[in-house]
Amino acid sequence: MGNLLNGASYKEPSTVEECDSTWETDSGGEEEDDDEDGLQAGAEESEGEEQRSEGSQNDSSTSDQNFKPKRSFYAARDLYKYRHQYPNFKDLRCQNDLCNLRFYMNKIPFKPDGVYIEDILNKWKYDYDKLEHNHTYIQWLFPLREQGLNFYAKELTSYEIEEFKKTKEATKRFVMAYKMMLDFLGLKLVDKNGNVSRSANWQERFQHLNESQHNYLRITRILKSLGELGYEHFKAPLVKIFLQESIVENTIPNMKQSALEYFVYTIKERRERRRLLRYAYHYYQPPDHFIWGPPTKQKAQRSKSVKKTIASNRSLKKHVQKSQDAKIEQEQVKARIGSFEEKLTDHTEVETNPETAGSIELVENCKHEMATVTDDDKMVNTELKFLSTHRNDTTNISLYGNKLMEKNTEHLGDENNTNRILVVDAIDEDGKDCLCSLSPGTTAESNTTEENLII
């Protein structure tokens, strides 16, 4: 495969996180606006959340018994090297060898079988038994820059890759070989953009593919080779349909792990990987076992948002309770005013009756007591003067009571003025005379802010 360079510029990754840069440039939703198949946020994402929630409840008995899976470091490191063009390795072979290109030019057969590319494309097509049980042709049909199980096959070199891309005869046969293998897998190529769909015999082939799992290694090689030889745009549609069949349709359930652990990470563009992983996450069950993304930071933000919502709900509850308390106090004020008004009605001769003359003194004492009220509440003194002047006029007393009630109601409806509510206390002396004592009442101030009330 080549020798390691003696440079110190490359550091071998030692963790899965160091191998995976998928979410490094994630903007937290850039993919959703461009996807046409259900990757965007909004209503469909909410539906997906409901599906995952229901599935989590349905599978709770089984998921609790299983350990949460872990990502394979071997797979992550292997795909990291592939995406970064095998750092710290160099070509050792003679650049004029080009055996992979010459094989696709039909000039040499593949070893050890000795079969030419034209024979494979014409005679092996639809021969599923041969394609299944022969394990030496796949390294020649889909060459890589790394050694495979067939030690007769040669690794690609950088120079050979460039020459291969410029040779139309070779690229034409390469696409034909890809179509042949798609048919073997139960798929067909739809257009030049690499879109694929089920073939006519997909049910039979999917069942075989679900049972014959060594073909997942072949698919990984095919995806890698597509990227090496100029067909990177063919990879995402192929990975997407495998995710759909294994996770959504459940026609190839045994492929689920390989599709997420290997197939997705053969794609070099981070954006495409994120889109595919979000698609898989949308349907994956159980949801708490999805270990490939979205990143932890988004989950942490989600958790923080939930906690903030709970705190806001508690604050709102306290605010509602305080409002209820204020309403109760308002009713009490109304009852006191009513009692005061009723008893004053019986004293229409306050000025001439000596037995009730003491009521005037009580009014004066009340005025003196209210002199301590703040400047904003000077209206109380004015209203007390009104009461002294018209103490024998039951009609005006009633109007005053209503006016005072309106003032209290106005204060109660204003959060900023809850400390200016006036409480009326009825005074009953010896069961005969009654007047009011006005004193400033307060309600508990609410610390609830507009921000806390947002849910």
UniProtKB/TrEMBL annotation:
Bias type Acidic residues, positions: 15-48
Domain Opioid growth factor receptor (OGFr) conserved: 95-298
Family statement: Belongs to the opioid growth factor receptor family.
Species of origin: Pyxicephalus adspersus
Pfam family, one: OGFr_N
Protein name (record): Opioid growth factor receptor (OGFr) conserved domain-containing protein
Gene Ontology CC entries for this record: membrane
Domain of life per record: Eukaryota
Residue numbers spanned by region Disordered: 1-67
Single GO molecular function: opioid growth factor receptor activity
